[in-house]
Amino acid sequence: xxxxxxxxxxxxxxxxLVLGSVSCSSAESGQAPTDAPTAPPxxxxxxxxxxxxxxxxxxxxxxxxxxxxxxxxxxxxxxxEEEEKPEALVEALRLKPxxxxxxxxxxxxxxxxxxxxxxxxxxxxxxxxxxQEMLDLFSRKMAExxxxxxxxVLGSVxxxxxxxxxxxxxxxxxxxxxxxxxxxxxxxxxxxxKPGGRVVFVEYRxxxxxxxxKRLHRMSEAQVRKxxxxxxxxxxxxxxxxxxxxxxxxxxxxxGRE
Length: 258
Description:
Layout: H1 11-19, E1 44-45, E2 53-58, E3 61-64, H2 72-75, H3 80-84, H4 86-92, E4 100-104, H5 112-119, E5 124-129, H6 132-144, E6 150-154, E7 167-173, H7 182-192, E8 193-204, H8 221-228, E9 233-239, E10 245-252
Parallel strand pairs: 4-5, 4-7, 5-6, 7-8
Antiparallel strand pairs: 1-2, 2-3, 8-10, 9-10
């Protein structure tokens, strides 16, 4: 179970949180006329909030604390095989040789090496994380497994920093609920997708009270869809075969489908 000591917010992340809480639209420079319509803020900051959250709300959901690199051992815990069935998840993605996959919030690369195996030597996996310490562990793990088609990428809290139109599938395992800027990150992810590319959210099921994970580190299918469908994404399926998580799949809309 994720415990309090596993979740630490870095100073720069807090600064980005405060400075990045912007409205949906703003003037390029100067002050808007007093009679101009004002867009509602995208995010809401609250003093009274869950101690497992950062006090920042998006579409009614409080954003959870991010897990620092100090909790990396939890990502590699032996019981994770039984709890999450990683091989079954990768199989369910139906990846093809030569595809390009982005593992967002890759951490130590627990899923990245499996994805790299699935797409083969002609494919590529981007392991994206916002902590260089995690990427250092990622590179070490890939070297230990002799994985040569997985590349670490240092992203930011608002941008995955991937080439536009380059990715066939984006995978986010137990990470989206921790994004401090979910709207901006999803915009960035959508830019990185090829036409028809897929985005896959894997989140512990909020609907299931037996899942032994803190509430803010779980998400309902309805909330995932509510947030994802603000973007150029269309829901395609929800896979419910994993023990504790749902796998919610979207496809990037093409011309004439928005």
